[in-house]
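FAQ
Q: What does a multi-component entry look like?
A: The components come first, one per line:
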Amino acid sequence: MNPKILLVEDDKILGYALKTYLEMRHFQVNLQPNGAEGLSAFNSEQFDLCLLDVMMPIMDGFTLAEEIRKLNPAVPVIFLTARSMKIDKLQGFQKGADDYIVKPVDEEELIARIQAVLRRTNPSPVSISSYSIGTLSFDWHSRRLNDGAQTVILTDKEADLLRLLCERKNQLLDRKVVLQELWGKVDYFNRRSMDVHMAKLRKHLQLDPKVTIINIHGKGFILED
Amino acid sequence: MNPKILLVEDDKILGYALKTYLEMRHFQVNLQPNGAEGLSAFNSEQFDLCLLDVMMPIMDGFTLAEEIRKLNPAVPVIFLTARSMKIDKLQGFQKGADDYIVKPVDEEELIARIQAVLRRTNPSPVSISSYSIGTLSFDWHSRRLNDGAQTVILTDKEADLLRLLCERKNQLLDRKVVLQELWGKVDYFNRRSMDVHMAKLRKHLQLDPKVTIINIHGKGFILED
DNA sequence: TTACTTCTTAACTTCGTCTTAACGCTTTTA
DNA sequence: TAAAAGCGTTAAGACGAAGTTAAGAAGTAA
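Then the predicted structure of the entire assembly, as tokens:
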């Protein structure tokens, strides 16, 4: 499904132009003429991204962004600002903007920025499936763990587990997160099952002696390389 | 702990100026003069963010960014580009830039963009879990206390205790507050238990000789650095 | 069917953490 | 100054968490 964008822009001509352009580039766009209506639109639908003009009547972009953050801090926000607007620009970032675009809008740049923000926020479904761990490389799709010399083919669960670890390499991966993601439920048996898989993964990862999965007692695991 | 930035810039004057400015703003900066050395620096340390000049001898910024992504796709990249460079700019985004800055660099804007990118990539806006104590860094979430050289993994209670101390660094932390927060009850045994944990913490904190936990008789403790 | 793979369950072992106890030193109080 | 209370420290034990191996169970392919 194409990403859904909430566009709030009071300038009708620019607003319509942007909407048309974004739709041409396969985004779904909901255009609203001011902050108040933008907010109520945000209330009634799910969006993947908000594109907000800063200078607007009724409710300005920054205030709207604050309201949006209160409702759902996960949805990224990009501001549209006038070229001169330097101080406001900074305030905008302070209030949790993910990016901003200076008017007049360069359409290609806009697309690029939107895609960059979406890539970061939605670890996309097509997504990265190749990871490097020390000297090893791991491809989640083909479930191969590669040494340079030899290749080990992991099982489904092992691969899923390793992917989670890779996504938080050198950071704590919480046990509960794993159980919720891969088993859907946190109970004693799933926990034990996970430990078994972890043991198998450790064995596979011995291909590179520097790679280890360390345990944080009572919390989770860290994949270190 | 302050964010660690890998800065790769071949212009020595600009590079040094940026490094100085960023350090003034409490970032840790590793400055490298070209792509090759930038890559090897990236290999040997963990960074929170990379700031790469696009036009460089030996290895240009885009190529470097690609190599960096291969090693760790989670680390955000910001490019430094010349004003005119439009097509390259877009290529940069395609190759996974998180943002770019047009030269000549506006320092405040640079800081704002860095902070924006870091806020997005570092997942915990809710509760701060990273503290610095003297030369040490402590991450409550993963319970790691870091020296630069070595890392000690604390236990749950130790980590909780250290967090409380950090939150009131160089101020009195009342015994009763600790007991109420971490044990839920103030009695003789909990008090003794806390003292045991305190002793262990002191031992860990010997990593930096300047850091001490001093006792205020009958009142509580002060973490000094 | 048999052979094979993968995941779960079980059982046993090892390890880590927290509490409790003990002892000695320091500070406060009577 | 003596007694009491507060604190630093080490060690031992209990308990739960995690590592490990192997035996079922369930599914898949030949």
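Q: Is there any commentary attached?
A: Sometimes. For this entry: Confidence is low (pLDDT under 50) at residues 123-128 of chain B.
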